[in-house]
Design a protein that fits this description.
The protein is α+β, with helices and mostly antiparallel strands. Helices cover about 45% and strands about 20% of the residues. It has eleven helices and 13 strands. It has a five-stranded antiparallel sheet, with helices on both faces. Strands 6-9-10 form a three-stranded antiparallel sheet. Strand 4 and strand 5 form a beta hairpin. Helix 7 packs antiparallel against helix 9, helix 7 crosses helix 10 and helix 8 packs across helix 9.
Length: about 325
């Protein structure tokens, strides 16, 4: 996989050159909000380029982060897997801010299928999603494996970050005790260092014919991170939204042990519940851990460690706090 960046140009120049359709895909309201623009060549049904346009100074920093990380990843020998990762085409400019322009990737966002009628209520559909994500992740980890680290490194800097962020909360002292015990349980298990996506969730996976054919949004990537992070992040994010389309207090279709209502109920169900979904979710992580020569008994601890990481690192304060509160409930309900 190679990455060639052309000279800086304006976004307007790129739109004029495309001479086709332009689609504004999404715009968030976060501090790092970006507008995503798809550029289509005349007569083509699929976009050829994707432009990420920052709307704030915080978003500029995120754009620059992703550009740097995609450049580093582009220098790695990934074989056919390289075709599933965006390649930087240009660093353009719009209203004085940098615009990241990459190749567009094929496929449908997994999250779109996830939210179709009762998709997550069907074991076969969920298994297919887990299989596709797991196969792509296994290939990435195999191709980029090097060195090794203790699994306790998942929590490096996390207790300190949580203490700074939530130090005024009277429950934080118990959280820190929990993290210390969790770190002790993870210690002694070694895993290879690999490329880590950092936000490996259904909203960033593009699929076709039962396979992942594209993975987008690499701004949180690490060139030599711990492979357990992407494993746990996928199960966490897949589980969090199981009750999204169910009214509070009602049973979630396909999941007899799950009621909608409290934030994070789906993830509590995945870790503490019984039935086909908790079995599939835990097996996904267990299979990944066995591939990394880590015992399946570490499934719960690896997921708890990633929840703590999200609480410490998430941009959105409420999202971070909800993960911390979920971590407390999981500790109490073990």
């Amino acid at each position: 996989m190679t990455s060639t960046v052309t000279a800086a140009r304006t976004l307007a120049d790129l739109v004029d050159d495309a001479d086709g359709r332009v689609v504004c895909l999404a715009m968030s309201k976060d501090p790092n909000a970006k507008v995503t623009v798809l550029l289509f060549r005349p007569g083509e049904d699929l976009p050829s380029l994707v432009a990420k346009v920052p709307t704030t100074d915080a978003a500029v920093r995120r754009i620059q982060l992703e550009a740097g990380r995609l450049t580093r990843i582009g220098r790695r020998e990934l074989g056919p897997l390289g075709e599933t990762i965006p390649r930087i085409v240009a660093m353009a400019e719009h209203l004085g801010r940098p615009v990241l322009v990459t190749t567009a990737l094929p496929g449908r966002v997994m999250l779109a299928a996830y939210h179709t009628w009762r998709h997550t209520a069907r074991p076969a559909a969920v298994q297919a999603d887990f299989d596709a994500a797991g196969q792509w992740l296994a290939e990435l980890q195999l191709r980029t494996s090097s060195g090794g680290s203790d699994l306790a490194c998942m929590l490096d800097g996390i207790p300190a970050a949580i203490s700074r962020r939530f130090g005024d909360d009277p429950g934080t002292a118990a959280d820190l005790d929990q993290l210390s015990a969790l770190r002790d349980r993870l210690a002694g298990h070694r895993v290879a260092r690999v490329i880590v996506h950092g936000d490996f969730w259904p909203g960033n996976l593009l699929t076709a014919n039962g396979r992942v054919c594209g993975v987008i949004d690499w701004e949180d990537a690490q060139p030599d991170g711990l492979p357990t992070r992407d494993l746990a992040r996928f199960v966490i994010t897949f589980s969090l939204y199981l009750d999204r389309h169910t009214r509070p207090g009602r049973r979630v279709a396909g999941h007899p042990g799950l009621r909608s209502g409290q934030w994070g109920a789906g993830l509590e169900y995945a870790l503490n519940g019984t039935g086909w979904y908790p079995e599939l979710a835990q097996r996904f992580v267990a299979d990944g851990l066995r591939r990394l020569s880590v015992p399946a008994t570490c499934v719960r601890d690896v997921v708890l460690a990633e929840i703590a990481c999200i609480a410490a690192e998430a941009d959105h304060p409420e999202f971070a706090k909800n993960h911390l509160l979920l971590l407390r409930r999981l500790r109490q309900g073990r």
